[in-house]
Amino acid sequence: MKRVLSIQDISCLGRCSTTIALPVISAMGVETVILPTALLSTHTMFKDFTYKDLTDQLMPIAQHWKKQNVHFDAIYTGYLGSIEEIQLVENIIAMFKEEDTLVFIDPVMADKGKLYSGFQESYIAANAEYCSHADVIVPNITEAALMTGNVYKETYDETYILDMLHKLADFGSDIVAITGVSLEEGKTGVYGYDAKNQTTFKVQTDLVGVSYHGTGDLFSSAAVGALVQGIPLKNAFQLAADYTVSTIKATLEDQNQAWYGVSFEKTLPELSALLKKYRMEK
Ligand code: PXL
Asked: Are 149 and 170 in contact (CB under 8 A)?
């Protein structure tokens, strides 16, 4: 069985980061080891959330694992709470990265043109430098704009996206994929660049027109779960995008939906079906 290390916070209530990565990647038949970067009562869109920083736990936990000779097929990082944590996680990646370990970085820090609560401007440059340690990075448009120094735009054209893809590729990862890119009416998706082959790729899904918290984490988790099982890049992203859109639609239909996240539990059977389909196409 493949094994992924997921490094991100635990937001106890709110369905994001670890509470998405653990069930979603596990449901894809992949062992999911978690390294929590912080413990929050909820994610940061709630008012008055509690925050217990776990920076001092990261290295002792990693060193204990090192003694167990554990191997990770992928290391997936999401929300990291501080520049200090970024630096520690860089060391942890160096400790565990082997030739066949995929390093997948979701540089979580912002959306809709704004940094998430709690992040300072200095975090942007640190996150950009951190991306150089990845094989794959998946910023959303806001994160891409912040890290490249481009102006954040709500309406844009292909040139704007391509310019950011090339600038992001200069940070050093092999694959750069900007999420939430909508270049056609009624459609959204991922616009990617493979720096080794100097080729671009696009993945498209329906644009549902509502946005829910945690969809980025859902997309990344599904993409990691697919990639680590050898599903080719474009198919892995298509699977993740299809699963995310299907979950957004299911959330919209859910009479009892919670405002704070997606009802991804409803669509886990669909994820299994998608995985089966793409495994057969492999
Ligand atoms: O979904 C990204 C995310 C993860 N973790 C925490 C967050 C957010 C986004 O706001 O607040 C704690």
From this structure: no
